[in-house]
Amino acid sequence: MAWRYCYKDALPFSAMVAVECINVGLNILFKAATLKGLSYYVFIFYSYAIATLVLLPLPFIFRRTELPTFKLSLLYRIFLLGVIGVLAQICGYRGIAYSSPTLASAISNLTPAFTFILAIIFRMEILALRSSITQAKIMGTIASISGAMVVVFYKGPTIISASPESPSPSLLPLDSSQTNWIIGGLLLAAEYLLFSISFIVQTQVMKSYPAELIVVSLYNLCGTIISATVCLLAEGNLSAWRLRPDIALVSNLYSGFASALFTVVHIWGLHLKGPVYVSNFKPLSIAIAAAMTVIFLGDALYLGRYASDRACTYKDIHT
Predict the structure, then answer these.
(1) 291 or 98, which is more confident?
(2) Model confidence over 84-103: pLDDT tens digits?
(3) pTM, to two decimals
(4) H or E stretch covering 302
(5) For residue 143, is pLDDT > 90?
(6) What residues have CB less than 8 Å from 176, skipping those under 6 apart?
(7) Which residues touch 164 (CB under 8 Å, ≥6 apart)?
């Protein structure tokens, strides 16, 4: 009984929390690396390539028996996941370049709302309007979307201003205009909508082929092939693909290993708990991201972010 509780509840909870913390660190490193000149197209490709190199041997090391037949239609779905994943990362990292990692964490609160709506559409979630749980989820969805709109369209006055002496000028945001802030927010919203769609597709894939390591390895392989094609066309400057021993190399290595961990944990969590459970952990990253961007990037904390955080905290409590 104790082992069953640990595997079904405690372990997924701990893994999801850890993944969100690591993801915040990834966004911080990415922002710092792009401020030093790293192309986000290059970053996306190396992230998928390193994750693929890490994951490809694992299905051969940890072999599973009695798996269903691998059909061509399953490969099409995994390739679709690769397309969605690459598009989501392009939108996300471009959005962070326009704004900040804190905004990315705040907008990530849309993921549970999007996933809940999509789960209802695809009949993965039962909508019982008289149920208090369903009512709480609906209220949480409204609060989550409202909070995201606040943080995108209302930046507000500065609550915490970074000390002008601590960060170097090169680490200050590239462009903090309201227009870029809104563009960044909309790109990030598109990213998390795509992630929500991928959660739904991944759940369906795992139902028909419950082998996490094989699915994750093929997904990252497809992502590497797709990102290589797209990113080579988008980033024509060949010198941008050369990694030097600085923060760009560190961020790419971190991203590759972190991406491998993310996909394994998310696929496992989706198989075990479902898409809504996995998406509900996104709001945990807000406070961590706000603190880290102020400390390490010299970013400022605005009232709009704080207000959206309160709305998203309400959403967490009631879901």
Answers:
(1) 98
(2) 999 999 998 888 888 777 77
(3) 0.75
(4) strand 301-302
(5) no
(6) none
(7) none
Measured CA to CA, the distance from residue 101 to residue 289 in angstroms comes to 6
* Two structure tokens written together for 116: 């809940």
Tokens of residue 169, six digits: 């000028």
Token pair 């409590």: residue: 317
Q: What count of Cα atoms within 13 Å lies in the side-chain half-sphere of residue 59?
A: 17
Q: What is the 3-state secondary structure (H, E, C) of the chain?
A: CHHHHHHHHHHHHHHHHHHHHHHHHHHHHHHHHHHCCCCHHHHHHHHHHHHHHHHCCHHHHCCCCCCCCCCHHHHHHHHHHHHHHHHHHHHHHHHHHHCCHHHHHHHCCHHHHHHHHHHHHCCCCCCCCCCHHHHHHHHHHHHHHHHHHHHHHCCCCEEECCCCCCCCHHHCCCCCCHHHHHHHHHHHHHHHHHHHHHHHHHHHHHHHCCCHHHHHHHHHHHHHHHHHHHHHHHCCCHHHHCCCCCHHHHHHHHHHHHHHHHHHHHHHHHHHCCHHHHHCCHHHHHHHHHHHHHHHCCCCEEHHHHHHHHHHHHHHHHC
CA–CA gap between residue 85 and residue 223 (Å, rounded)? 7
